[in-house]
Write a structure and sequence with these properties.
two-stranded antiparallel sheet; Chitinase A, domain 3; extended; about 290 residues; alpha+beta
Amino acid sequence: MHCNKKGILIITAWLMILLAGCSRKQAVLANIGSKTITSADFAERLKQLPPQYQALIKSEAEKKTMLDALVKEQLIVQEAKERNLDQEKAIQAKINMIVDQILLEEMVKRVRESQLKPSEAEAKNYYDQHKSEFVGRERIKVAHILVKEKAQAEQVLAQLKKGADFAQVAKKYSIDSNSNKSGGEMDYFGQGDMVPDFEKGAFLLTTPGQISESVKTVFGYHIIKLLDRKAAGERSFAEAKPEIEQSVEKNKFDQWIEGLKKKWHVKINYDKLPEINIAGAPAASNSEGVK
């Protein structure tokens, strides 16, 4: 058998590159007894932080602070293990609960991604069979001008009654920064979506173009103009799709759970619940008590 020296050298070189890459990825940042903290551990812990905190760990000083915190954690954990805290029954129960929670979340995540996501056909079929569930409320679209004082509201209203352009007046006087740049226009809304006084004044308007008297709310004084009304009625598939997908996913999840109950031969003894005494809860009594 002939050895290809060139081939061996190439393989060796590749192995050295790969090992060098691994050592860079797994650089040891700290040793705490038998425990090591690697750069990969550091990066993983960083990923677990909320985005706003991740953004703070940029400079060497900030990285050093985080590494010091990880070392302190491990010092305490190592001390706890030396004292056999992890062998105590109460601690073991807590550990098992955490493990169960992690497994539960990961299992649900994987099942949602692989089995529960509804197809377009499933969503459309659900919509066709439950159209009566997807009925929208009456909604209106208005523009408004908001000012602080009643006297100013009356002055604005007087200008509008003389024929001033509502959108231009809103841009000039309205203190509502969310709508004044668009001439006071707001998105469609239904009853229950806005503060009661504003909503009442808006829904009293019946004809597009109609303008209200001044309406007082906690924000100030509003002059409201009705732009459009949409009557209550059946919502389209596109409008209802997000809710449909949630319903289909829930149904599929419930079916999956029922399948697991059969697979694992579940038996539930609800009749035993009265035997459970919860600390701090009032004791159960058969008497009717004082009326």
